[in-house]
Amino acid sequence: MRPVPALRALIASALAFGVLTGCSDSDYDADDVRYATGYGSHEPLAVVGYPTTGSLGITQEVVWQIADGNAGELTDLAADKDVSSPEKTAENWITAFGKGARGKVTAEFYDEGSVRQAVVLYFHDTGQIKQIQVRVTNGGNKDKWRVVMAEPDPKEAVAVLPWVPKKPGELGSKTPQ
What pTM did the predictor assign? Predict the structure, then answer.
């Protein structure tokens, strides 16, 4: 005896629900939710160099939080909250780079990035340049990428290091030795 169409649809729906919920990953945390929300709300970065998934993700989040003026969220991305000044640094970065972060941004990733990476942000609408350091920290059950935030002086926050090129790609994404 063949099942009626309504019963067949009910069985298919139940199977699909079981498959979808059985395959879902319950290991998502607040960082994953924040990233997904930011990704859906912002333009992607233009990328030069060789980021890892982690170094690209944290760099995108830094730019998004600067653009949105979210000092608290930006501070949460800090690598060394105990020894640096992430709150003041976040305020400095938002004040200095907020307008540029709301426009087109290119991120150039330097050298090998398995545990740390230098990243230069080019804010095209304002012509500003910002070099940041991102690195892996121990996040309990999984490693997390974070940004070094130790620029409590506004002048230090906007200073451009001498090695940083004026345009993305000029050094071939390799820091000078």
Answer: 0.81
